[in-house]
Each structure stands twice: as structure tokens, then as C-alpha cells.
Amino acid sequence: MAKRNMLRSTANAYLNFPLIWKLLIGLAAGTIIGLTFGEQAAVLAPAGDLFLRLLQMLVIPLIVVTLILGVSSLTPRNLGRIGGKVMGYYLVTTFFAMALGLGIALLVHPGRGLSVDSNGAEQAEEAPSLTDVFLNMFPENIFLALSQGDILAIMFFVLIAGFALAYMNDHEDKEINEGAQIIRKVFKTGQEIVFLLVRGVLEYSPIGVMALIAVSIGEVGVEALVPLGKLILVVVGATLLMLAFYAVLLGFFKASPIKFFSAARAPMLTAIATRSSSATLPVTTRAANQLNVPKRISSFALPLGATINMDGTAIYVGASVIFVADTLGVQLTFGEIVSVLMVGVLASIGTAGVPGAGLIMLTMAVGTTGMSMAPIALVAGIDAILDMARTMTNIVGDLTGSKLVAASEEKAAKKNKSTAEEPAGSEAS
What we know:
The protein starts with a helix and ends with a helix.
């Protein structure tokens, strides 16, 4: 009995200890283990892989239930307005991030001092064309898309299904209307089940974070960072400037940056560990709830942002393209830089929010300039480190977008309310 009470007391103490501190402890422990044991830290890989599997297990159920509930609660008019704001924000910030990465890299020239022989280099695997990216958004078989984890195709189907359900909510046929309400109740219950599973997985997250960080640092090592340290500093510095840009936007909409980043700490650390916007989605959704972002907005903006809003990746691609040019001794023309800028922004729409996907964008951007793909191998060597910074920026951008749209909607609602009350006030007087 005493042993059982001690175990219960220990479990309660762990559960009641703030998640953010557990994540920080896991992050610090993983760093120490990675630096101490090097490649031997790979024995912890299964613990990290388990964490990734648990998070990935929740991604599609979370997208399906939250997106259908969010969209079905909107009127067609609101869906168009909110959707336009979200898409506009994502495109503008991605463009700004890409320009930021290019600009800082052009000032610093991180690749100078390194020389890469492009002779005999194999060309990287060809990235999908923008036409293919667009067509792949429309699934031929939704069940195949579900089994393959094709997020864009799943989101497209769920979006139109949610929109159809929203239409049924106001259907003139009473039976259809009642059936639509029942479906919404089923999905609402499903949402609570998924959120309960999320809370359970998050309790394991400190162990997963420790394992993932230990393995990453153990593989890369300190010495491998020396020749590429400038590139790391450029990417990290640009991401910090991007975070400052988000803070300015939040302040402009009268949203407290301090409260925002306090709520965003858990998803930021999770993103650093998992290096996946999609895998971090459950934690990001929880942070949005803490920031009082309505579910009708967060359930639309966050899953969409995890797939198409890649501010951190845009910074990484911009800086890495200049790095590649420096190592090859190539001076990019203004037209080539503009081409890289535009392709990087458009390519972000089709880049999956999973570890390493930024290399696909980098390959596409380098390909537009006609340069050799050989230096990409150097970037790939430290991709895990860069991926941590860019993924963290990606999810903060998603969360900022949902908060700004929510603030905009709240401001519009107050304005409409005051406008509606003015005639009544005038009549009373």
C-alpha cells in the first residue's frame, strides 16, 4: 500500500509540474547527453521516434474533426472573409521572410571561405512542379489520401465537406437540418476525445524531446558546425528578427506580445524538438486556445498554416541559396534573386510540414538559378540544426496569424455592434 501511494504521489507530482519546465529540462538533458556521448546517443532514437509517431498519429484526426467543426460553424460570408485574411497574411509574411533571409545572407555572405567542386556532382531529385503541387491538392481518392497522409488533399476534402455541412445547418428540410446538427455533435465529441489524447501525449513529450535532441546533437557534433557556423548564425539571426516582426504585428493589433510568447513557449520547444509543423499542430492548437483564439479561426488557420505557411523555411531557403552561390563563386543577378524569391514563396504552398522538407524547397530554388546542386550536401549536413530554428519560426507564424485574424474579427464585431446601436441611441434621445 505504501509503495502504491508513493507511486501515485510521484505520478501526481509529475503531472502537476508545469509542462514548459519539463520540456526545458528534457531539452537541456538531451543537449548534455548528445555532447557527452556523441553518436552513441543514437540508442535513445526509439524513444524520440515513439514521440514523433504519437504526434503524427494525432495529426489527421485533429485536422479532420477541428477543421470540419470550424468551417461548419461559419456562414459562407464569414468563411470567405476569414479565409481571405488568413491566406493574405500567410503570403505576405512568407514573402517578407524570404526577402529577409536573402537580404541578410547577401550582407554577410556566409559561404565565403568555402569552395565546392561542382564537377561530377549528381543532380538532386527533381522537385514537383507548381502545376503538380496544385493538382495534387485535389484527391482522386480521399481514402488513399488518408492512408498516405496527404495533408493538402485531406484538407481540401475536409474544407468542402465542412462548407457543405455549414450549408446544411440552414437547410429548409427539417430532417436534413437535424441530421447536420447530429453530425456536428458527433464531431464535437470526437474533438474532445482527440484533445484528451493530445494531453496524454504531451505528458510523454519531455522524454521524447530529450531523446530527439540528444540524437540530433550526437550525430552533428560541434566540429561539424565550424565551417557552416556563419550560415547557422544568419538563419538563427533572421528567425529572431522574424519573431520581432511578429511582436510588432501583435502590438499593432493591440495584442500583448508578452502573453502571446508565454503561451507559445510549449509549441516553440516542441517544434525545435520534432522539427515538424504538422507534428507540433496538437500543441499549437492548445496554445491558440490559451490565447482565446476562437476555434472557428484556429481550426482553419493552424492546419492550413502547418502546410502552406513556411516563414522559417523561407528564411532558410533564401540564406542557403546565397550560401550555395558563395561556395561556387557565383554572383547572382537581380533577376535570379527575384526568381528565387518568387519560387520560394510559391513552393512553400506545397511543402509538407515534416522534418527535412525544406531541402525540397532549397532544391527547387537553386534549380531556378541553374547552379550546381553539390553544395546542398553541405547544407544537408547541418539541416537538423537549421530545421529546429525554421520550424519554430513556422509555428510561431501560424499562431501569430490566427491571433491577428481573431483580433481583426473581434474589432470588426465591435464596430458592427456600435454601428447597430447608434440609431437606437439617437431615437431614444
